[in-house]
Amino acid sequence: DVKVTQSSRYLVKRTGEKVFLECVQDMDHENMFWYRQDPGLGLRLIYFSYDVKMKEKGDIPEGYSVSREKKERFSLILESASTNQTSMYLCASRLLGAWQPQHFGDGTRLSIL
Amino acid sequence: QKEVEQDPGPLSVPEGAIVSLNCTYSNSAFQYFMWYRQYSRKGPELLMYTYSSGNKEDGRFTAQVDKSSKYISLFIRDSQPSDSATYLCAMSAGAGGTSYGKLTFGQGTILTVHP
């Protein structure tokens, strides 16, 4: 079974802090994704990475950056956290190929105070 | 207009009922279709994956795709309380330009199956 693990289930940070969300997958998947999920807005793609050190902006990249130094790990960085970044953050991965389904972690519920 | 429309519900049915969940879409380039199930405080779990028009069955679940009408459905037979969750449809056009097979999701339908 595919296993996508997000390091924290719940996180509380303060406005202006730099925040790191970590995601690890154990299935040697080439592609990895970061989404946020908000009521009424559904899932929105922040960034994705199609291989190590490769990244591409999604629909809502403003205020975020990413890092992928190793194939199994994909990090989302909030450069200076703001209250409107309070959300559920979901990481996903898939095998190389646009037709491949994505597999999700259990999410990190982030609150910015 | 959203590319993918899904009735958010909520939908409440008695145990044993047949449930029908639906999504419509406007982008005729979509060719890969998925249904995800998301329990409260968990991530989406892949339930069904199809890439052609027609039906695909897996146990109590049947996914149906009608590309001519741009309409997909998920049927749940003999529904159980453990089926209570949010169901998300998702679809992809495959690779093209820089899309890298971006998934477009519906809003999700909240389903409750009561004993």
Account of the protein in words:
The complex is a heterodimer of chains A (113) and B (115). Helix content of chain A is 0%, strand content 57%. Chain A has 113 residues and is mostly beta strands. In chain A, the strands form 2 sheets. In chain A, strands 2, 4, 5, 6, 9, 10 and 11 form a 7-stranded mixed beta sheet that branches. In chain A, strands 1-3-8-7 form a 4-stranded antiparallel beta sheet, with no helix packed on it. Chain B has 115 residues and is mostly beta strands. Chain B contains no helices and 11 strands. At the A-B interface, strand 5 and strand 10 of A face strand 4, strand 5 and strand 9 of B.
Q: Which terms summarize this structure?
A:
heterodimer, A: 113 residues, mainly beta, seven-stranded mixed sheet, four-stranded antiparallel sheet, 11 strands, 57% strand, globular, B: 115 residues, six-stranded mixed sheet
Briefly say what this structure is.
The complex is a heterodimer of chains A (113) and B (115). Chain A is mainly beta and 113 residues long.
Main sheet makeup of chain B = 6 strands, mixed
Task: Supply Rg of chain A.
Answer: 13 Å
* Number of DSSP E strands of chain A: 11
Assembly state (oligomeric): heterodimer
Overall morphology of chain B: globular
Largest interface: A-B, 23 and 28 residues
Strand content of chain B: over 45%
The percent range for helix content of chain B is: under 10%
Mean pLDDT level of chain A = 93
> How many alpha or pi helices of chain B?
0
Reading the helices and strands of chain B in chain order gives: EEEEEEEEEEE
**Distinct helical segment count of chain A:** 0
Q: How many whole angstroms does the radius of gyration of chain B measure? A: 14 Å
The best one-word shape of chain A is globular
- Assign the structural class of chain B, choosing from mainly alpha, mainly beta, alpha/beta, alpha+beta, or little secondary structure: mainly beta
> What's the total number of strands of chain B?
11
